[in-house]
Amino acid sequence: MTCVGPARVRPFRYRSIGGPAGYNCNYPAKESSQGGARIRYFCVMDFAGHKLFLAPLAGVSDSVFRTICKEHGADIVVSEMISAEGLHYNSAATADLLRFGSAERPIGIQLFGARPDHMAEAAEAIQKSVVPDFIDLNAGCPVAKVVKKNGGSALLRDISLFSAMLSALVKAVSVPVTVKIRSGWTEHVWVDAEFATAAQAAGAAAIIVHPRSKSMGFSGHSYWERIAVVKKQVSIPVIGNGDIVTADDAMRMLETTGCDSVMIGRGALGNPWLFSQIKDRLAGKQATLPSASDRVQTALDHVRRFADAHGERKALADMKKHASWYTRGLSGAAQLRSNIFGATSTIGIEQALLSLLSEK
């Protein structure tokens, strides 16, 4: 299989023992021979220790957003979910989702699919081409177009296929393999502990638990107690995910579930400061809230960086939602959102954002 589209990223190497959060450099270097090429990994991923993950968010967590979240305190980021079938059939649009910069490390590439052979093929090609720090299996996406192809949370109905998928991934790559699951297909019919046990047996390095069922979508509140159940079931690191929108939420999840780390998804939309706020709380300090100026300036920076990376047309289509998220709750935000969504260029989005500051 040839991955068409992404620029090759050279293996990331540290000059000293120290590395960014998310790496544990107390382990010896690891070497892997693949296709005649030797890849040397200087550090081994550490998924425990109260790391802060940015969740994979389809259509949102591109390289620019991931970098901004890293700059605001995220320890580990994950790509948007990537179709193994898309890579198998040489989709340039799918392969383009593999792009990332060294500032985003440590980074995981998340794959979804329903065929273990195609998943293994995709993972092996990804390791050779972009050298991610880990591979993540999506076994939690509830979106119909993914589920109807037996991907995402559909795997929770077939533990044999789930185990075969993970085993194939683990055998295909030398980097760690993680898996993100939901707690079940139907609310109150929980299978998370069973699938976590299977994941550990298949060689998963960590498991991410979003304690909702597929049928719940994103409605209601997630059942955090399920994270605690999974934590008691397995010895690999457990990363909790779901309904973390404030630093207090993250602290409560860590305290009540005993999970090793947390993953933040929708709570980071328009609010990358959430990562630094959680770190403040973990350090015993008061969390610092961004000012209106901070929010507008970061939104402006995001718009400009996105346009530089993706071009004006895509930036105009994609950045309106981001700009509106950054300004939620601010005085005059309703009118501002109207101006943002009425903009016909990224300059128009910027002017709408700047108007908020001129009114202060």
Description:
The model is unreliable at 1-20 and 23-42 (pLDDT under 50). The chain is an alpha/beta fold and 360 residues long. It has an eight-stranded parallel beta barrel with strand order 5-6-8-9-10-11-12-13, surrounded by seven helices. It contains 14 helices and 13 strands. The radius of gyration is 20 Å and the shape is globular. It folds into two domains: 48-282, Aldolase class I (TIM Barrel); 292-358, Non-ribosomal Peptide Synthetase Peptidyl Carrier Protein, Chain A, CATH 1.10.1200. The longest helix is centred in the C-terminal third of the chain and has 19 residues, at 292-310. It is 41% helix and 16% strand.
Task: Quickly describe the structure.
The chain is 41% helix and 16% strand. The protein is an alpha/beta fold and 360 residues long.
Number of strands: 13
Mean pLDDT: 88
CATH homologous superfamily descriptor of the largest domain:
Aldolase class I
Measured distance between first and last alpha carbons: 56 Å
CATH class of the largest domain: Alpha Beta
- Total of helices: 14
What CATH calls the topology of the largest domain is: TIM Barrel
Strand order of the largest sheet: 5-6-8-9-10-11-12-13
Whole-angstrom Rg:
20 Å
SSE sequence, one letter per element: EEEEEHEEHHEHEHHEHEHEHEHHHHH
- Uncertain runs are 1-20, 23-42
Structure class: alpha/beta
**Second CATH tier, the architecture of the largest domain:** Alpha-Beta Barrel
Main β sheet profile: 8 strands, parallel, barrel
Count of separate structural domains: 2
The percentage of residues in β strands lies in 15-25%
Helix content: 40-55%
Could you say which overall geometry the principal axes of the C-alpha atoms support? globular
